[in-house]
Design a protein that fits this description.
By secondary structure, the protein is mainly alpha-helical. It is built from five helices and two strands, in the order ααββααα.
Length: about 100
């Protein structure tokens, strides 16, 4: 279960929005091996390893979510060109959640 206060935290809310609205990432959200809400930790290495066989656009969504979480995850923003309309909207809203509030 996601603690309510994380929806107000600018570092968590973009990540949570992407994970909750992206079909593949949503499947990982409830697994503490990837995101542990008791410890309030994101296991970046495990997420990256799991995403190796994914499509470029799926990896982009994960990378964006991780970048919004802490800024340490560097990625190529030009890969956003590969997103479909639905994922473009998810990405734009996540960016607004992180930087506009």
């Amino acid at each position: 279960m996601i603690p309510d206060h994380l929806y107000q935290d600018r570092y968590w809310r973009g990540l949570l929005y992407i994970f909750m609205n992206h079909n593949k990432l949503k499947q990982l959200l409830s697994n503490p091996e990837f995101i542990d809400f008791e410890e309030l930790s994101v296991h970046v290495d495990k997420l990256k390893k799991t995403s190796k066989p994914w499509s470029t656009s799926e990896k982009f969504m994960l990378d964006l979510a991780l970048h919004l979480y802490n800024g340490r995850n560097k990625f190529d923003m030009s890969e956003a060109d590969r997103l479909d309309d639905k994922n473009t909207e998810i990405a734009l809203k996540a960016l607004r959640l992180r930087y506009a509030g």
